[in-house]
Every structure is written in C-alpha cells, then in structure tokens.
Amino acid sequence: MDLAAHRHSTKLRAIGVETVGMSKSFGGLTALDDVSLKVKPGSFHALLGENGAGKSTLVKCMMGFYQPTKGSVLVNGSEVSIPNPRAAHAHGIGMVYQHFTLVPSLTAAENLVISRANTPAIIDWKKEHQTLDAFLETTPFKVPLDKPVNSLSAGEKQKLEILKQLYLDQRFLILDEPTSVLTPDEADEVLGLLRGMTDAGDLTILMISHKFREVTAFADAVTVLRRGRMVGGGDVANLSVDDMSHMMIGDTTVRERGARETSLEKKLKLEVVGLFAEDDELLPALEAVNLKVHTGEILGIAGVSGNGQSELIETLSGQRIPSDGRFFVDGKPYEPERKQMDSLKVFGFSEEPLRNAAVPRMTVAENMAFRSFDKAPISPFKGWLSPTPIRKKARELISSYRVKTPSTDEPIENLSGGNVQRAILARELSGTVEILIVANPCFGLDFASVAEIRAQIMDQRNKGAAVLLVSEDLDEILELADIVAVMSEGRVSFTSPIADTDRAKIGHAMAGHQS
Ligand SMILES: Nc1ncnc2c1ncn2[C@@H]1O[C@H](COP(=O)(O)OP(=O)(O)OP(=O)(O)O)[C@@H](O)[C@H]1O
User: Fold this and answer.
1) I need a surface site. Which of 195, 337, 350, 434 has the fewest CB within 10 A?
2) Record's family (predicted)?
3) For the chain, how long is the longest CA-to-CA vector?
4) Nearest protein CA to atom 2 of ligand 1, as residue
C-alpha cells in the first residue's frame, strides 16, 4: 500500500489545541492580552467577540501567520513551535477561510491532489482516484469529484474546502465565519456534518461566528473575547444568548430598530429596465433584469453570491458598463456618474469596502471625507484638503457609528474588518439620502453593529429613501425588505411582497428552483 493510501486508511483522531497567555501588540495597540483558550479534542468550540475584539489575531497566532508577543500553543498538551502556517499544518491545524481558495477551472479531484505538499511531478491519476475514493469513504462530505469547481454550488465549494483540510490530515479546523456564503439550508447541512465528525471524535472545530443561532445549534463550548481579553465562556448548554451577548459588549446598549412606518405616499423612484451586463470573463452576468424601487421602500435582492448581484451593484454605481438596458430616476433617464449621483442624492455601499470604497493607506479621517472632499467646509479651495474640519467631522462620525480606531489619523487598513465597514457606512449614510444602494452591509459585523446598521437603513427608508438592498443573508432580507426579489443565474427569478412569502419559498428560489 502506498503512503497516501495508508495514511487515509488509519483513522486519524481529533486533536486538542490550547493557547497559554497569548498576547499580541501592533505598535502601541494591544490586540490580544493574555488569552488562554482551551479547545478540547472532539469539541465544537465557538469564538465570539465584537468587531475588533481580537478573534482573527488569536487564530492567526495559532496558525503561524503572526508571531505572538508572548504566549505559547499546546497541541494535545505539549508545547509546539509555530513559526509559519506550514508548521501549523504539520501539527494538524488547518483553517477554512470565508472566501474560497480553490482553483475554479480545475476539478474537485485535481484541487485536492495539487493541494498536497508532496504532489509528484507526474501524477498517476488512476491511483490518485482510488486513494480519493477510499478517503471519501471515511468522511460524511460528498462532493462530485470530476466536475470543475466553478460549476459547483457555494455549499459544495465550502464542503470541498473542508474536505481539502481533512484530506491534508488537519484534525483541528479553524473556521472563520464559514457560512457567510451559504444558503440557510447549506449552512445547516455543513455545520451538521462537522458536528457529526466532532461527536465521533474525528475532528475538533474552532469556529469564529457572529451568528448566535449557529453557536447555540452546533457548538458545545464557547469563548468570548472583548478588547483583546478573554471575558467568559463555558458550555453552550449553560449559557443563554443574553449571557453571551452581555459578555461580548458589556453594558453597551444595542440600538433598537425603529418601526416600519407606512404613512408615506409611495412614488416610483428608481427603475431598472431590461438590464444586460457581462462579467469580467465576458460571460453573461445579467439578463433582462427589471426592477422598481419606490420611495419609503426597501427592495431586498436575495440570492447566493455569484448570481449577478455584484454586476447589478456595479452597473448601478457606474463601475461597470451595461451591455444593454436603462436606468430611470423619478421617471427621467439616469446615468450613474458622480454629478448625477450627487444631485439626485444617490448613495452606495459596495462589497469589500476596504478594496472597493476606501484607500487603505490613507487615514480614517481622510477616508471618511471622500464623499465631501471637494465641497466646503472640508475643502475651501479645490484640491486642498483641510485637516481640521476633516478630523472634526470624522470624530463625530466615529462616535455616532462606534468605529473603533486608535485615532482619526490611523491608516484605515489597520482597523478590523467590521470597523472599516462601519467607517465607510458612516460616510455614505451621513447626508440626506434619496436613493440608497447597499450590498451585504452587515457582512462580518457583530450583532450590536448589525442592529445599528439595520436601524440606520430603516431610518433612511422611513424618511422616504428608496433602498435597494442586496443581501446574501436571508434573515436581513426578512427583517428589512418590503419587497423581495431573488436573483438566480443573472435573472430575477422570483418577486413578492415580503408579507406574502416566507423563508422556505425564498430559500427554494435562491437554490435555483423555479416556483
Ligand atoms: N496588522 C495590524 N496592524 C495594526 N493593527 C491591527 C492589525 N491587525 C489587527 N489590528 C488591530 O487589532 C485589533 C483586533 O483586530 P482583529 O482583526 O483581531 O479583530 P476581530 O475580532 O477579528 O474583528 P472582526 O470581527 O471585525 O474581524 C483591532 O483593533 C485591529 O484594528
């Protein structure tokens, strides 16, 4: 029997990992302060904490991406040295990221085989397939091996990411918000399978999550971080959601969303007619999309990512030229370019704000001033940025949107993901808004920030804004939208007032079934 076949025939068992007194500073900032986390072998452990609490820093230290300032890692009780991710892998510690890392044009089998450090120069595919089949027998995850990855659903891709880690013999998996790209059914399926493997003692999971529902349904233990310190945790069975949220934010009050007001007279505000667009590979991404958004209304676009939503947002915000179709605002033709956006008060919030809507190396204050940088009082003379009003305005926004930053002068790229998002949203929502176009505004945010941002969006709607909300989070659509439209393969496949539909019907349409 060859080595790979032998490896997969001996059943590998879950391993336990601990951090002892782990601290990490970035310059003067202590991101992690004396954290001792114990994840028992075969447990499903959740790591909770608000944005910027230190979760990513902790797991990056465990994975060898960062060297801790102090502290150590134990694997099955023995101290190990993890100078880099390769060393973490050698100790059986692997990580599954929010975003996919597979090669789209290769098959699942090819992706697995090339992921091995010891892939031979000439691959004996017959033998590899036999080994893969034998390996699949040992896991509950089933994925078609011979299809290119780009033809798999998001759920299948996520399963393949996990399979890849198991194939590489990682028996301690760190998952960073693993379900953010999945439909609710896919999320439950993937987490259920993982829970089965932990119960069987084959795997240990450490999952970063902001979703209490997932933590209570699938995790058995939890650790909560706040401002870099471990503030609590224990068995999930002994903790309520209130206990966990209190550990996360202390006595900070969570903003309640205002009621949905219906008194305003509705008027057609934004219309998309016969929109066609291509993606970056020049393949059809949008086909004959028609949408209407009225004043004082939120149109929620649901769908699994990659079904045309990004292209829709990009065409509406002038970042992609449509191949056909027209936009109207107040019944008049609309071109999404800066001048019209300003005069018609169209505001937008794109996905991945650090990449698409910010200049990473510039300061928080400068990034918050972008929208208004060529207008008084920020710039009394064109082209000259006046730092004092920029900082003053930034300080106001930082406090009302609870952006955690050491100062207004910190480069925005040093903020945690959630805080970059809050800074950009603060910038976009701070003026008078008539049309608001937002994509996944709460992606990766902690529950208190989610409540805050959703309240802000509802406020804008109640004040009469027409809101187009693209979201992969069905709970967000159910909570905010007046009308829901589902995008599937570049088309609007389903539309309904939210009151006349439900989670199952929308989920069904998201999965690509015609109803
Ligand atoms: N490379 C870095 N340089 C400077 N500061 C950093 C760096 N990485 C993280 N930080 C800071 O460390 C703190 C912890 O950030 P971290 O990303 O670990 O938080 P998190 O809990 O993962 O947050 P989120 O839920 O938003 O992802 C934050 O204040 C962040 O600004």
Assistant:
1) 337
2) Belongs to the ABC transporter superfamily.
3) 77
4) 414
Q: Tell whether ligand 1 has an atom less than 6 A from the beta carbon of residue 415.
A: yes
296 lines ligand 1 (CB under 6 A): no
- Distance from Cα 405 to the centre of ligand 1, integer Å: 10
Domains, the chain: 3-249 (3.40.50.300), 267-345+436-515 (3.40.50.300), 359-431 (no CATH)
Q: Round to whole Å and give the CA distance between 338 and 380.
A: 20
Going by alpha carbons, the residue nearest to atom 1 of ligand 1 is 414
Cα–Cα distance list, 372 to 376, 401, 424, 430, 436 (Å): 8, 18, 13, 11, 17
Residue with the two structure tokens 């240990």 = 204
**Distance from residue 57's CA to the centre of ligand 1 (Å):** 6
Does ligand 1 come within 6 angstroms of the Cβ of 417?
Answer: yes
> DSSP class of residue 254?
P
Dihedrals phi, psi of 330, to nearest 5 degrees: 55, 35
Per residue of the chain (515 residues), give pLDDT as tens: 344 444 444 456 899 999 999 999 998 889 999 999 999 999 999 999 988 899 999 999 999 999 999 999 999 999 999 999 999 999 999 999 877 788 888 899 888 888 877 777 777 788 888 888 888 888 888 888 888 988 887 778 888 999 999 999 899 999 998 887 777 788 888 899 999 999 999 999 999 998 899 999 999 999 999 999 999 999 999 999 999 999 998 877 777 777 787 766 789 999 999 999 998 888 899 999 999 999 999 999 998 777 899 899 989 988 899 999 999 999 999 998 888 888 899 887 766 677 777 888 899 998 888 765 444 444 444 445 567 778 888 999 898 888 888 899 999 998 887 788 888 888 887 778 899 999 888 887 888 888 888 888 998 999 999 999 999 888 899 999 999 999 998 999 999 999 999 988 898 888 776 54
ipTM of the complex: 0.97
pTM for the structure as a whole: 0.77
Supply the DSSP string of 306-363, one letter for each residue: TSSHHHHHHHHTTSS--SEEEEEETTEE---SHHHHHHHTEEEE-SSHHHHS--TTSB
Find the 363 Cα to ligand 1 centroid distance in Å.
16
CA of 104 to the centre of ligand 1 (A): 30
Atom of ligand 1 nearest to the CA of 54: 18
